[in-house]
Design brief:
Elements lengths: L3 E10 L8 E11 L4 H15 L21 E2 L2 E2 L21 E5 L8 E3 L2 E2 L2 H8 L21 H11 L6 H5 L6 H12 L8 H14 L10 H5 L7 H31 L1
Parallel strand pairs: 1-5
Antiparallel strand pairs: 1-2, 3-4, 3-5, 6-7
Bound molecules: FE2/S2 (inorganic) cluster.
Length: 266
């Protein structure tokens, strides 16, 4: 029979974006160790619904570690203590009977709290809208070998594409920087031939959107890499910085010359 845990929870409650928040102390007895962290919150919420009528609000969707929707700071660590794991894939067997568990939202001014543990991550959407795509005609299937891509390059692009956009990188960083997210999302396209035509525009647009959204600067703290549930490496930030430098030089020096040449020819 599965072991059960008696837990003391201190959960951040905040009625709305402008309201003051506080830690609500909640006893959570007889939690199965086989439950996921979100299932533990489901159990707690069932009790809250039948008593106070005010369940804890939190984000979730796939509960399979792939959508990036879930996210909370558990005992001071985004997604909890296990490492390389999303909150929905964190199981209660990670904890011990009698533990006190602190649960907070991802904290960053660019991620304002909507309610309790739910934050507004639309800043990430605006970064993606500024260049996280390739413009291609998708009308028909291509020949398999029409655009050869080496396995090394394909694997590397897939490493970056593993980013699920959860925001743990932002929540872990003392600057609330979104550089790891932006770098992974730009890098997954910049690695591939299909991403080359829009590469400069992509990098400049995504970095500007990141700054406009209010995320902080990267000062090489490496906390993002440690907190990332998909273990995206900070080497992608180095690549983004290189690509950004090239894009700035290109737009400042080469683009006017190209435009002039084009104007003359026209
Ligand atoms: S709910 Fe989708 S990654 Fe956790």
């Amino acid at each position: 029979m599965a072991r059960t845990l008696n837990l003391h929870l201190k959960i951040w409650r905040q009625p709305g974006p402008q309201a003051e928040g506080w830690f609500q102390e909640i006893e959570a007895p007889e939690i199965p160790e086989t439950a996921s962290f979100l299932e533990m919150l489901d159990i707690v919420n069932q009790k809250l619904i039948s008593t106070t009528g005010d369940p804890v609000v939190f984000d979730h969707d796939c509960r399979e570690g792939i959508c990036g929707t879930c996210g909370m700071v558990i005992n001071g660590i985004p997604h909890g203590p296990q490492g390389g794991t999303t909150t929905c894939q964190l199981h209660m067997r990670t904890f011990h009977d009698g533990d006190t568990i602190w649960v907070e939202p991802f904290r960053a001014s660019a991620f304002p709290v909507i309610k309790d543990l739910m934050v507004d991550r639309t800043g990430f959407d605006r970064i993606m809208a500024a260049g996280g795509f390739v413009s291609v005609r998708t009308g028909s299937a291509q020949d398999a070998n029409a655009l050869p891509i080496s396995k090394e390059v394909a694997d590397s692009a897939m490493d970056a594409a593993e980013c699920i956009g959860c925001g743990a990188c932002v929540a872990s960083c003392k600057n609330a920087s979104a550089m790891l997210f932006t770098a992974a999302k730009a890098g997954q396209f910049n690695m591939l031939p299909q991403g080359q035509p829009e590469k400069h525009r992509r990098v400049l647009g995504m970095v500007k959107a990141m700054d406009d959204a209010g995320f902080g600067n990267c000062t090489n703290q490496y906390e993002c890499e440690a907190a990332c549930p998909k273990r995206i490496g900070i080497r992608w930030i180095s690549k983004l910085n290189r690509d950004y430098t090239v894009a700035v030089v290109h737009s400042a020096l080469l683009a006017p010359l190209t435009k002039g040449a084009g104007d003359g020819a026209g």
